[in-house]
Specification:
Layout (H helix, E strand, L loop, with lengths): L1 H35 L52 E2 L3 E3 L4 E13 L9 E12 L5 E2 L4 E6 L4 E2 L1 E3 L10 E2 L4 E9 L8 E6 L7 E5 L3
Parallel strand pairs: 1-12
Antiparallel strand pairs: 2-3, 3-4, 4-10, 5-9, 6-7, 6-11, 8-10, 11-12
Length: about 220
């Protein structure tokens, strides 16, 4: 049956032609894509990796450390009032504050000082007994009375001690009244030829200075 053989061969010939055509079209598309630089990712534009940009504020200086926080308070100068000091008097004389209040050192005793509080050091000391007199017509508070002592040519500050018998000024001194107080200061025996006792009880009155030989 020759007609059957020709009928069977014709579809095979047509299939071969179709395969050749499809292969040619595919090859052409690949070549065209390579020439145009298409890497198979569609129409997505190419982008090159750019270095990161560092933005700077115009006029700004680079930081060299942590920012300092300004200290609180005003920068305006604070006026400081000078402390007025009365002319020095001898240890055995009476000092006058000029407010009706007078002060006198009635006793100076050599004692062995004993430490009781922070910063105190036991050792040879001087015990001072002072008497305040109020000749004014009104009462005066003695709570703010400050007594200090220094010694030697360099005016070395003496350490105040709690013992023996310390009893500082306190309370209110009535008009016409008197009050006594006791203070103890550590003073080397060899440095007692030049002693100064400084007393103050209010900023409105001058500071008193007693000086002399306390041996």
């Amino acid at each position: 049956m020759p007609w059957l053989s020709h009928a069977w061969a014709r579809p095979r010939w047509i299939l071969l032609v179709v395969v050749v055509i499809v292969a040619g079209i595919t090859l052409g598309l690949v070549l065209a894509r390579n020439e145009s630089g298409d890497d198979g990712r569609g129409d997505e534009p190419r982008t090159e990796k750019q270095p990161a940009l560092v933005t700077e504020t115009p006029g700004a200086e680079p930081s060299s450390g942590p920012t300092k926080v300004p200290e609180p308070g005003s920068l305006d100068p604070v006026p400081v009032e000078e402390v007025e000091t009365a002319p020095p008097v001898e240890l055995e004389e009476t000092g006058d504050f000029g407010t009706g209040v007078k002060l006198e050192i009635v006793e100076i005793n050599a004692v062995e000082g004993k430490a009781r509080g922070p910063g105190e050091i036991s050792g040879p000391a001087l015990q001072l007994v002072l008497e305040a007199t109020n000749d004014s017509d009104k009462g005066v508070w003695l709570e703010g009375m400050v007594i200090a002592l220094d010694y030697g040519p360099d005016h070395t500050p003496a350490i105040g001690l709690s013992e023996p018998g310390t009893d500082p000024f306190e309370g209110r001194l009535a008009a016409g009244g008197t009050a006594r107080a006791t203070y103890v200061f550590k003073v080397p025996v060899e440095e007692r030829d030049q002693v100064r006792v400084v007393a103050s009880y209010t900023g409105k009155a001058p500071t008193l200075v007693f000086r002399g030989d306390a041996r």
